[in-house]
RNA sequence: CGGGGCAUGGCGCAGUCUGGUAGCGCAUCUGCUUUGGGAGCAGAGGGUCGCAGGUUCGAAUCCUGCUGCCCCGACCA
């Protein structure tokens, strides 16, 4: 492609409303253009990168034996009523009526449609297992779209759905997808990690997420340095302390703590570490009332774990200050489990404390030297905190570290949730009808592009992994207007590289060198060849990888051979 | 959904408090010079100041209503 014929609008200034670096760079490099909140046009350069991702995903899905289909974006409401999700899904589902006043929605995901296909087209166990996938625009009316295409309302997604006759078959289909995902993200050249995930509202027995590792990631993931254990922080098991609870060493005493409402305040006032304090959080109970959740002062409550406890309202809701005062007689900041009337759940690390500090359920008052069994009944010991770096791994090998990641894929074993409610059955070997077992598997294609940039950039711009780069190599002639030799050499090299099958961009614009260098670095082309009079004088061209510290010269004579060695294939 | 903020040329902003007929930088176009790290000079084009009412001799500026967008939180899987 000749740059002079290609609409690449780069800007020096960062648009004011772009927060994360991938969003800023995508706008500055002219990859995307915003149309409305969460809606973006993919410009030619950006679309090339997106297509590279899409093609790798397609190739690996095909290789894994999945079959590509394309389902409609608009879906009739009846189908969603069948699965029960028309009522349950909430305002994320964009609903509208057609000219006949019939209800439709824009598909945020396609379980219903594919299950409808399955129940009408799959009749016999002999047709299974089968895995259908599509690569298509999804629409979710996010309350707050942000971070550019990372959390947009419309986004390109690969979604796949497997059907099996047995749970074992489903597990096998799932494993095949897991392997395909590993191959995909490896080929894309991204640093990634798969983690055990919460099955959440979708339900099902097993789920793993694939995260691209990046400091700016929205999700925290915990991983062991001793083996391959890795889990979303929501799911990461926080182990009980290995040392037993010490014997009581102090008597329980009241201490005045006026105005000290946070753990930090109280710890400073009493000159104690936060780990000796107990944080008491009141949440709404499943059948009204409140439940007390205790975590150590230096720990955080894990909402996903807590809302699974018997008697706790799901989704988790912190109690209002009214019901807190009603239940304890005190306000948040002075709450504690001693003399608390309701159900108390304590994190393992809290149960292991002796002589701890907690609120006295009287404003401005705390208790010190509190001990389980003596000053209050033993509480139910549970895991309700976020794991922290340094925790022992739940597998017993190594300790946990915390990293940040961007969720780009997930795989789910759905079981019979949709096949049951929508009647996807086939005739089994025994001639009896059997409900199919489903799996579903997603990859956010557009999000992968943004995640690749989050993970691969520097102060000058994007650094595309070779597999995603819109162009593999850029040829930069300097001052070609004045030098026919430069122009001819660059043209010849451009044609040779194209003939050899590379995606080449020729910067044939009449711009000054600084502009060309800055632009090629901003748009992140991984390989660059500079053609200048200075080098040609000595029969040399100049090569530089986008990550390299410095350029290297090579003979202009057998340029193609040299570049093959640098570009690969 | 709660709180806060913004809306002036393609982009980034000033002007609004104190009303007087719109300006700067980048980008774009023309010419000359320049050419190994975002050039210089000279000139040019481009804006119903988010929309609708109102006050006034006069509104980007004051008042009312609406819309869009951004940020923080909650929510969502």
- Estimate the strand proportion: 25-35%
State the distance separating the first and last CA atoms.
20 Å
Number of helices: 16
Arithmetic mean of pLDDT: 90
Number of strands: 30
Estimate the global geometry from the Cα principal axes: globular
Backbone CA Rg: 29 Å
What does this structure look like?
It is a single chain. The chain is α+β, with helices and mostly antiparallel strands. It is built from 16 helices and 30 strands. Strands 3, 7, 8, 9, 10, 11, 12, 20 and 23 form a nine-stranded mixed β-sheet that branches. The chain has a five-stranded mixed β-sheet with strand order 27-26-28-29-30, with helices on both faces. A four-stranded mixed β-sheet has the order 14-15-16-19. A hairpin with a 6-residue loop joins strand 29 (540-545) and strand 30 (552-555). The two termini are 20 Å apart. The mean pLDDT is 90. The structure holds one RNA strand of 77 nucleotides.
């Amino acid at each position: 492609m000749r740059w002079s014929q290609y609409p690449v609008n780069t800007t020096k200034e960062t648009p004011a409303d772009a927060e994360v670096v991938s969003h800023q760079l995508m706008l500055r490099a002219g990859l995307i253009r915003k149309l409305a909140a969460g809606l973006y046009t993919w410009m030619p350069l950006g679309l090339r990168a997106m297509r590279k991702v899409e093609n790798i995903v397609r190739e690996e899905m095909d290789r894994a034996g999945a079959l590509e289909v394309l389902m409609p974006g608009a879906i009739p409401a009846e189908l969603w009523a069948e699965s029960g999700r028309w009522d349950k899904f909430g305002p994320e589902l964009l609903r509208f009526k057609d000219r006949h006043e019939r209800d439709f929605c824009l598909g945020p995901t396609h379980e219903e449609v594919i299950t409808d296909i399955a129940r009408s087209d799959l009749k016999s166990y002999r047709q299974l297992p089968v895995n259908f996938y599509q690569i298509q625009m999804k629409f979710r009316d996010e309350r707050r779209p942000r971070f550019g295409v990372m959390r947009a309302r419309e986004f390109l997604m690969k979604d796949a759905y497997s059907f099996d006759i047995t749970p074992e078959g489903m597990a096998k289909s799932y494993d095949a997808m897991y392997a395909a995902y590993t191959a995909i993200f490896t080929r894309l050249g991204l640093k990634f990690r798969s983690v055990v995930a919460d099955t959440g509202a979708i339900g099902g027995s097993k789920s793993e997420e694939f995260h691209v590792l990046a400091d700016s990631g929205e999700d925290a993931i915990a991983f062991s340095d001793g083996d391959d254990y890795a889990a979303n922080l929501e799911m990461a098991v926080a182990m009980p302390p290995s040392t037993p609870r010490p014997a009581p060493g102090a008597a329980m005493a009241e201490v005045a703590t006026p105005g000290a409402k946070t753990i930090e305040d109280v710890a400073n006032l009493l000159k104690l570490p936060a780990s000796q304090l107990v944080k008491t959080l009141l949440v709404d109970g499943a059948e009204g009332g409140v439940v007390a959740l205790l975590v150590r002062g230096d720990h955080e409550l894990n909402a996903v774990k807590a809302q699974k406890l018997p008697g706790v309202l799901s989704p988790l809701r912190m109690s209002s200050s009214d019901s807190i005062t009603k239940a304890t007689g005190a306000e948040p900041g002075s709450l504690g489990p001693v003399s608390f009337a309701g159900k108390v759940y304590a994190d393992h690390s809290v149960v292991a404390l002796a002589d701890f500090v907690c609120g006295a359920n009287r404003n401005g008052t705390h208790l010190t030297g509190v001990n389980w069994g003596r000053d209050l009944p033993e509480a139910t010991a549970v895991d309700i905190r976020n794991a922290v770096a340094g925790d022992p791994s739940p597998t017993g090998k190594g300790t946990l570290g915390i990293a940040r990641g961007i969720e780009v894929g997930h795989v789910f074993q759905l079981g019979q949730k949709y096949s049951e409610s929508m009647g996807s059955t086939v005739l089994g070997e025994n001639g009896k009808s059997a409900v199919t077992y489903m799996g579903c598997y997603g990859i956010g294609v557009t999000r992968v592009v943004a995640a690749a940039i989050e993970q691969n950039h520097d102060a000058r711009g994007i650094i595309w992994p070779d597999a995603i780069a819109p162009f593999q190599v850029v040829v930069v002639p300097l001052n070609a207007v004045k030098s026919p030799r430069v122009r001819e050499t660059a043209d010849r090299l451009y044609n040779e590289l194209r003939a050899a099958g590379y995606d080449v961009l020729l910067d044939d614009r009449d711009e000054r060198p600084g502009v060309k260098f800055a632009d090629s670095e901003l748009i992140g082309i991984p390989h660059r060849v500079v053609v200048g009079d200075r080098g040609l004088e000595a029969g040399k061209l100049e090569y530089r990888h986008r990550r390299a510290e410095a350029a290297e010269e090579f003979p202009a004579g057998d340029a193609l051979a040299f570049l093959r060695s640098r570009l690969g294939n």
